[in-house]
Specification:
Length: 300
């Protein structure tokens, strides 16, 4: 049951087993890490952001060796602006929350340097910039804590060596309640800022949009997973019926449930901020979603 629950909670994580007390990254290792006083800096290059396992785990373990000093050391993430602005947010959030989890598990602070703060002013749609850019080493009071659990979570996080970090079952899930609260707070800050005067062109008129948050949201992944060719292989992920997801949501009594999915369009357009591999399946995704949402036994 415990393992099943862990798999349900899991979404995001990775990194290779830490070498406690390590003080230098191997030459040519990417991402690299280095000491900056008592703090450690992990550099995330654009071309290898999927593979920071060994560097991040080594850096966190090295910093933890000095965590009884004052002030406590900090795990500093050196990620350039692309980390804050990429539309590949589903890949970047796993990295962000794994690094946050590693810092908490080692009892050290966390900091983005440079922060994504300026991105909020220029391109406010990216949620990465609205999440905490620094965090204290204080253990969240709602998360049970014992040495055995901490060691198990560190080892499991750092052994999870896959670029599909959503599949990792250790590290971030332990703090899922914390991340959920932070994501909600980030979405609320985003909504308030956008509602203060975001204007969008609508033909010859200028229309003011308001952004209201749903109590819950379902990500209906479609589009690219409809691709079937020799390089990607057949569709094998399938779809979770909405009825199954709603079974878990109903006890929470949400007032509204939003659905995020591929643009449900007949054909692609340059006006759409989406990938061709997604929008070209818009009609198929529309039909699947419509059929799935229709009450059983009801004709079209």
């Amino acid at each position: 049951m415990e393992e099943a629950a862990r798999r349900v909670r899991c979404c995001i994580m990775f990194f290779l087993l830490a070498l406690a007390g390590a003080h230098a990254a191997a030459k040519g290792q990417f991402p690299e890490w280095r000491f900056q006083g008592r703090d450690v800096v992990v550099k995330i290059p654009r071309d290898s952001f999927h593979e920071p396992q060994s560097a991040a785990c080594e850096a966190a373990a090295a910093a933890a060796a000095a965590k009884n000093s004052s002030p406590a050391p900090v795990l500093i993430i050196d990620a350039p602006s692309w980390f804050c602005t990429s539309d590949s947010v589903g890949n970047h959030l796993p990295l962000y929350f794994t690094l946050r989890a590693l810092a908490l598990l080692h009892g050290i602070g966390f900091q983005m340097q440079p922060t994504c703060g300026p991105i909020i002013r220029d391109t406010p749609k990216y949620i990465t910039g609205w999440l905490p850019q620094s965090a204290s080493p204080n253990w969240p009071p709602e998360v049970p804590r014992d040495p055995g659990t901490i060691m198990r979570e560190i080892e499991g996080t750092c052994k999870c060596r896959t670029i599909i970090t959503h599949a990792c079952t250790y590290g971030w899930p332990l703090f899922a309640a914390v991340w959920g609260r932070e994501i909600r707070a980030a979405a609320e800050r985003y909504s308030v800022a956008r509602n203060k005067g975001v204007l969008a062109s609508n033909g010859s008129k200028t229309q003011k949009y308001t952004y209201d948050l749903d109590d819950a949201v379902i990500h209906f992944r479609c589009g690219d997973i409809m691709e079937m060719d020799a390089s990607r292989g057949p569709l094998n992920s399938g779809f979770v019926p909405l009825s199954v997801l709603l079974r878990y949501l109903r006890p929470l009594a949400p007032r509204s449930v939003g659905i995020v999915t591929t643009p449900l369009v007949e054909k692609c357009s340059s006006k759409l901020e989406t990938r061709a591999m997604d929008c070209k399946h818009g009609k198929q995704c529309h039909d699947i979603l419509e059929e799935d949402a229709r009450p059983k036994g009801q004709n079209p």
